Amino acid sequence: MATQRRTPGSQTSLREANRARIVDAIKKHGGLTQVELAGATGLSAATVSNIVKELSTSGVLHTTQSIRSGRRAQHVTLAHALGLVVGVHFSTRHLRVALADVAHTVVAENHMPLARDHRADNELDKVSLLLNDMLESVDATRDDLLAVGIAVPAPIDRATGTIARSGIMRGWDGVTIAESMERRIKRPVFIDNSANLAALGESRFGAGRGKRNTITLDVGDGIGAGLILNGQVFRGNHGVAGEFGHTTIRENGPLCRCGSRGCLEALAGGPAILDELRDHLGSLKLGDVVIQAMAGDARCIRAIADAGRHIGVATGNLCNLLDPERVIVGGELARAGELLLGPMRHAVERSIIVNPDLMPDIVQGQLGTRATALGAVAYAVDCVSITSDGVSY
């Protein structure tokens, strides 16, 4: 039988595919040694070494000497000079903007409060101006920006780029957020739900590293869930998976901002906790409740524990459906630590179907309130295709 010979075209295609596998692995992990790259991509050590050398020469990759297990190793990242990306997190009451290079190193960051029921036009204008100042602070311009990732605390209809349910962010209804921001800054913009990007941030840089199936809960004024399934963000058919806070846990319960009754968020979200404590603390913010609870205030401790039990019951249902390795709890309320996590674990243990030794870990997020902005940075990098021929989207 004659030996089948590959054409030059097939060899070229294979090499391009191998280059893409290496770049994608580095984008996902932020940086790997060449040995780790071989393990992550399934390529031989010689193939990895040759491609790393080639892409380093062309300015796509950057290598440094490091130590792994007592041995010298070559650590590989994307080249910092390729450009910058931005992660923007709009929450219900706060804005965070992180400017980073493609190796995920944050070079400038800003955080500020937002008015209740803020409007899209005002806040997008604010980000545009803030971005100019941040770029100037690192001696860069908008031409250096490759992409912007934006996170908002609402489900996003991926077909239209608008918020999928009116009333959740009243000042943002009907706005094509990514397009509106692109018109302001003339750079590519990508948008996602904040819980998805918090999950991505924790998966890449925090408590979810090394885990393929995790649930990340974003617990603050609202309650969302980001799902990492088989190592990928799961967004569902229309991009609205993970609206954990709007699952009904008490039929005919209190009215939720989404218009339904008895949602988890209406019972355990920030506004519900503050309403319960208004006669005790007045008009304090959720962060003040956490501080008071950690200082020993019995009413605040009880309010956080009650919220933890509600969230735990709903989390148990989600664990029975998805069987995750780990549940990561982030957001402003997660700063209460075991005051929240303890009642959550107890409620999950009571409702989960598997034996206790198979129950997922329930841990506090490692990135704190920065998780979503860092996830938005990672999302922006993921949306950029980087090759030796340049950048595409």
Question: Which terms summarize this structure?
Answer:
about 400 residues, alpha/beta, five-stranded mixed beta sheet
Question: What does it look like?
Answer:
The protein has 393 residues and is α/β, with parallel strands linked by helices. It is built from 12 helices and 17 strands. The longest helix is centred in the C-terminal third of the chain and has 25 residues, at 298-322. The two termini are 44 Å apart.
Summarize it.
Helices cover 40% and strands 22% of the residues. By secondary structure, the chain is an alpha/beta fold. The chain has a five-stranded mixed beta sheet. It has a five-stranded mixed beta sheet with strand order 13-12-11-14-15, sandwiched between helices.
Give, in order, the helices and strands: HEHHEEEEEHEEEHEHEEEHHHHEHEHEE
How can the largest sheet be summarized? 5 strands, mixed
* Number of distinct beta strands: 17
Distance between the termini: 44 Å
Spatial order of the strands forming the largest sheet: 6-5-4-7-10
Give the helix proportion (percent range). Answer: 40-55%
Q: Mean of the pLDDT scores?
A: 90
How many helices?
A: 12
> Could you say which overall geometry the principal axes of the C-alpha atoms support?
globular
| Poorly predicted spans | 1-6
